[in-house]
Specification:
This protein is α+β, with helices and mostly antiparallel strands and 195 residues long. The chain has helices spanning 18-30, 85-91, 104-114, 134-145, 187-190, and strands at 34-48, 51-62, 153-155, 162-163, 175-176, 183-185. A two-stranded antiparallel ribbon has the order 1-2. A two-stranded antiparallel ribbon has the order 3-6.
Length: 195
Amino acid sequence: RRRGWWLPAGHVDRGQTFPQAAVREALEEAGIDVRLTGVLAVEHSLVAPDEARMRVVFSAVPADPNALPKSEPDEESDGAAWLSLDELESMARQPPPEGLRGRELLEWSRFLLRDGGRAAPLGLLQEEGDGPGPMLRSAWRQQLQHGDQDAGVEATAGNRCQGSDGGAGLGGARPACARQPPFRLPPALFGRPTN
């Protein structure tokens, strides 16, 4: 508390998945029940030779669009608010607790609201198994059905593809592949602009 404005976040409790923890933390810290809509980032950092930290950043929308964020401080947070990009830009110039705790909230907001960034499908996070799970397959099918075929980086499973940059595989520009249809990986997955 009193460390400035930040994204709702916290530890994954024993027996919870990353998505379950994200929904719980948003409710605890912002007072809003959310529906997760995508994965913005999966971060893995070595913090010591024998210790690592893993973090998943989700996109979400309120389950109830009319729900108001928490306005009273408690043990979880000092409160929450809906803020515009202009308000965040202004708050980035102020020190905590009135300002932002760090630049991450502002940068994610710029990415999504100003730059047209997008999240990867939630199905990208899945239990260990034998390849793409049902949620991921469904997300890719929906993406293809909705005509979103020009976004992202293409890769065809099991093929080596020659890109126009002379590289092979997932890197570089649009690969020309023999087998179709290609998977379309959202630009947010690689941090590439859509145009």
